[in-house]
Amino acid sequence: MIESRTKQIIELMGSNGLRYSSETINTFIEKAEKENASYSGFLINLLENETKIKAEKKRKRNYSAAHFPPNVHEIDDFSVAELDKGLTQAQLEQLKDMFWLDASTNLLLLGPPGLGKTMLAVALGAKAINLGYTVCFERMTSLIEILTTAKVSRRANARLKRLKSVDLLIVDEIGFLPISKTEANAFFTLISEIYEDTSIIITSNKDITTWSELMGDPVLTTALLDRLLFNAKCYSLQGKSYRLKHPIGDEEIVKQRRKNKEKEEK
């Protein structure tokens, strides 16, 4: 009779979306009996467990869908002391609180290579995912390929739909390679569709005053910047390349890769 009743409970829980708790219901029943828990206490523990597991599953899915580059760092790994100027510790703390994300504020991280722009952008993205937000990361070259092939590629179209639906879109390395007018128009269209509801982080080694050369159209560039800067915080980082100041050997590279793999598996 008890086994039959437990089986019925498991089936009912599964059919009502409590799949994870149904897998451990026996453990919860035994614990409740040992502790002489109240009905409400038992139910709260069960539902808290279900919520926790679902949240972690969702976080892992979002992290995988973000398509972050290798070697993701935590936000506390970023040190403003490595910069000459462009970002203060107080400003970094404000970025860490993530209020800008709730306000759909855009972040522009500008400056020469090696100052940690991508590291900072990805670290903020990873923290956003841990807080329950959805995030996508794309380098500008990859984004342009997605935009220009979405009509003929099912995979690119699916990725584009994802890019348009997330809370935070990170576009990395604008300015490393020039783009055609058609590509610039596609990028402008994407930004126009999402900028009011989505936070956008842009990293670029080019000052925004030179973006018209990159886009090949001053009018289009002005319209693009009008949308990006409508609700934005801009940081022009200056200093010497971190990689040149702190070269690392093969052993350190291997250690860092192992560390990142462990983070992804957690």
Topology:
Elements: H1 2-15, H2 19-23, H3 25-35, H4 39-66, H5 89-96, H6 99-102, E1 106-110, H7 117-130, E2 135-139, H8 140-149, H9 154-165, E3 168-174, H10 181-194, E4 199-204, H11 211-215, H12 218-228, E5 232-236, H13 242-245, H14 250-265
Parallel strand pairs: 1-4, 1-5, 2-3, 3-4
Describe what this molecule looks like in 3D.
- The chain has 266 residues and is an alpha/beta fold.
- It folds into 2 domains: 2-63; 67-265, Rossmann fold (3-Layer(aba) Sandwich).
- It has 14 helices and 5 strands.
- The protein has helices spanning 2-15, 19-23, 25-35, 39-66, 89-96, 99-102, 117-130, 140-149, 154-165, 181-194, 211-215, 218-228, 242-245, 250-265, and strands at residues 106-110, 135-139, 168-174, 199-204, 232-236.
- The protein has a 5-stranded parallel beta sheet with strand order 2-3-4-1-5, with helices on both faces.
- Strand 3, helix 10 (181-194) and strand 4 form a beta-alpha-beta unit.
- Helix 3 runs antiparallel to helix 4 (39-66) and helix 8 packs across helix 10 (181-194).
- The longest helix has 28 residues, at 39-66.
- The protein is elongated, with a radius of gyration of 23 Å.
- The relative contact order is 0.13.
- The model has no long low-confidence stretch (mean pLDDT 88).
